[in-house]
């Protein structure tokens, strides 16, 4: 087909085939000038064909007409920057996140803010620009929506989300500075990151105490009848529980020994008179960043996340639109949970993945390896953001799970440069090859450089 004018034909109005001219790259958008249907937008999902997107709107404010009549062989040209801009406008794309590459040109890349009412999965190997890209997306959600966000941040990458860069757009910088962004952690000036044991559901409390209702039936039953905090009480955390149990009989003292042997009284995470993370989120904070990096015992990080997720689920009938962002999701939502706290946390995240959408609870998961994230959560994601990934097994897994992403676009992931991504799903007008834009706020974490090493050109 090389050397001839490019032309396309559609037998069903839903798919098309290139019948002459040069092949095209998967993801390229073309405009087909048909004789009867008008100008039709199509997208290549492979070098010789793809899907029909719809009719190019003739008037501003029109919507994309997706019902297209079959068309005979017609000229097919690369979509112009204006064509791509129109496609994004009529499909409600409104969050700028970088540049859209299509054909010999492209356009500004916009995400559909309304598409975040589905669960989203971001994956890319170390060095792909995954964390930076997530920051770009979170900044635009903050600026372009009213969506409440709770960010579970194990590496302190987003603790400076409220600090605009010196060269940031003044209007954007002012909006970020005015937003109610709370950063909770263990390093000043962060607010203390705390949880409240007394207000957790019984099953979650038992998970923290590593009590099984059958294997530990005597201690579990004793706990059920012994620990009954006053409604609305700000006390009743683990120290008080142990103190009360030590004043009891032999069985009560045995339960106190369990708690002490687990080291729970030494945890720094108990709220006592301070507000817990879940209380701060519920109080109306626009964005709450949980810096999970400062705890000595890794169980504390899992426990405070469990407390937050349980609280959000308990308040689900309020239907407050909330994006739960889980960076390094393989640590908090692993395919194979380890320990009672993590098992309970994953169980609740699986439930949110399956049922949370109707209550306005949506997940945004970020990880390096899709195989390490629990499959029942992964399979519920309707948005994909794929960055460089060299492992053939991981690329094949992504292609298998996210069938809405063209396989040829996914297959290119090993060849992406840093900051390049494929985006597909409800949050884009059509699958897109994107070069991520620049951050507006300061990155919290960064790689450690090798002393004395030269820069890579």
Describe the overall structure:
- The chain is of the alpha/beta class.
- It has 3 domains: 7-93, no CATH class; 112-195 and 271-436, 3-Layer(aba) Sandwich (Rossmann fold); 211-261, no CATH class.
- The protein contains 14 helices and 18 strands.
- It has a 12-stranded mixed sheet with strand order 8-7-18-17-16-9-15-14-10-13-11-12.
- A hairpin with a 5-residue loop joins strand 3 and strand 4.
- Helix 4 (202-209) runs antiparallel to helix 11 (340-355) and helix 5 crosses helix 7.
- The radius of gyration is 26 Å and the shape is elongated.
- Walk across the major sheet and give the strand order: 8-7-18-17-16-9-15-14-10-13-11-12
Rg is: 26 Å
Return the CATH topology of the largest domain. Answer: Rossmann fold
The count of strands amounts to 18
Tell me the CATH superfamily of the largest domain: P-loop containing nucleotide triphosphate hydrolases
* SS-derived structural category: alpha/beta
Low-confidence stretches: none
Helix content: 25-40%
Given the structure, what is the number of helices? 14
**What percentage of amino acids are in beta strands?**
15-25%
Domains (count): 3
Summarize model confidence as the mean pLDDT: 93
Overall spatial form = elongated
**Main sheet properties:** 12 strands, mixed
Q: How many angstroms does the end-to-end distance come to?
A: 38 Å
CATH second-level architecture of the largest domain: 3-Layer(aba) Sandwich
| CATH domain class name of the largest domain | Alpha Beta
